[in-house]
Amino acid sequence: MRSRDDGASVEMEAQQPSDFAVDLARLSGGVSPEGADPARLERRDRVEVYFRAEVLPGTVCAVVAALTPREEPRRWWLPAWRPALAAGALAAVIFAVVLVGSRLPPAGDEVPGVRAKGAVGLEVFGHRASDTFRVQEGALLRPGDQLKFRVVAPGDGWAAVFSVEDSGRVTLFHPLGAAGPLRVGADPFVPPDSIVLDGSVGPERVVVVFRHEPFDVASLARELQASAQRAGGVGSPLALPAGYEQASLLFVKAAVRP
Amino acid sequence: MDRPEIEAAYERFGAVIFRRCVALLHDLEDARDATQEAFVRLVRNAGRLDDPNHTLPWLYRVSTNVCLSRLRVRHRLQYMEPATLPEAIDPVGFEQRLILNEQLARVVEALDERGQQVFVYAFVDEMLQDEIARVTGLSRRTVGKKIKRVRELLAGARGAREVVDEIA
Description:
The structure holds two protein chains of two kinds. Chain A has helices at residues 9-12, 19-27, 38-67, 82-100, 217-231, and strands at 121-128, 131-134, 139-141, 146-152, 157-165, 170-174, 182-184, 195-196, 202-211, 245-253. Chain A is an alpha+beta fold. The radius of gyration of chain A is 28 Å and the shape is elongated. The model of chain A is unreliable at 1-14, 71-83 and 93-117 (pLDDT under 50). Chain B is mainly α. Chain B folds into two domains: 3-73, RNA polymerase sigma factor, region 2, helix turn helix motif (Rna Polymerase Sigma Factor, Chain: A); 82-167, Arc Repressor Mutant, subunit A (Orthogonal Bundle). Chain B contains eight helices and no strands. In chain B, helix 1 (3-25) crosses helix 2 and helix 5 (113-124) crosses helix 7 (140-156). The longest helix of chain B is centred in the middle third of the chain and has 25 residues, at 52-76. The radius of gyration of chain B is 16 Å and the shape is globular. Classes of the chains: A alpha+beta, B mainly alpha. At the A-B interface, helix 1, helix 2 and helix 3 of A face helix 1, helix 2, helix 3, helix 4 and helix 5 of B.
């Protein structure tokens, strides 16, 4: 092995190709350049074998999630639709003015049954040692990490927070140990308890489910389990019966250090 | 990129990033996180993953920057001790790791970002000055000056070999 602490490494490089040269040759489809130190090649090969066997399978899901662009909601003002929409809007204005204008409620009156509809939201915060961090979609977490949740409901109703693993195992995070869901309002709420991740590894999706009416938590857990099994995992948001709204976040639990 | 393309790219380039992260961080868990972070940065910023001549300097730059950033945090938190690394996948060997770790602590404390990068390329990767110039975008002459500065710094440090002998 070449000494790294005698300050002479750069001059010695002429005798042996660097890792950079070996990488370049291999990535270009060639073999390692002549003169490469066999012991060094063997060490780097061992690390690469370890990566493919132990690291890649457990992290590829998180990498894909972090790099896959999220589907944008369809926008009605996309250029291709503009002419049709403009014509439709003009026709609607004429219709309203000519035919039903006189029936419009006076200014300031609310139209019964119509209100702006929000969406349920979920934020996840992690705590490890002395670090507190926001958990992003696709994050890599570890058993023992503590999680806290912030849920935003679209209005008065009921909510529950679940964890669904790739295997289909479902765990109720909030409300802990309760048979029914949490009563929630329009204000964001943070359940008081933290969740400590257990030792299981692999992809896991945290799902907050909201409904305007109370629901049976155990039944919904079974729905989530069936949905994960049908989908072959939790890589995508899970399907729920009509009437439920949800927000979710995918993270990946990796094994603790050896 | 769609999922199969990302997976293929990760399989192709992930191992190189991971190896460098292990060599710099000496901690499998940290290296795993850093690899993911570096790969995501790489794909988001590098348009031509097909040409290793373009991609490899990217790989080296991105993985070096991610690792140095983590080492700076460690240094601020005063825990630069090397973590336990299984011998089977130790990229440099225990003694060299101790030496490198001590050098890294000193370099992170005393040099600017460019100097830290040059140290990594010259003393961890053992790259030629031409290769360092290619990866960093610096002139060969500037690289030479920075290597000289690193050597002066390390020469003034307590001998790494003494540390190894003390532990032994």
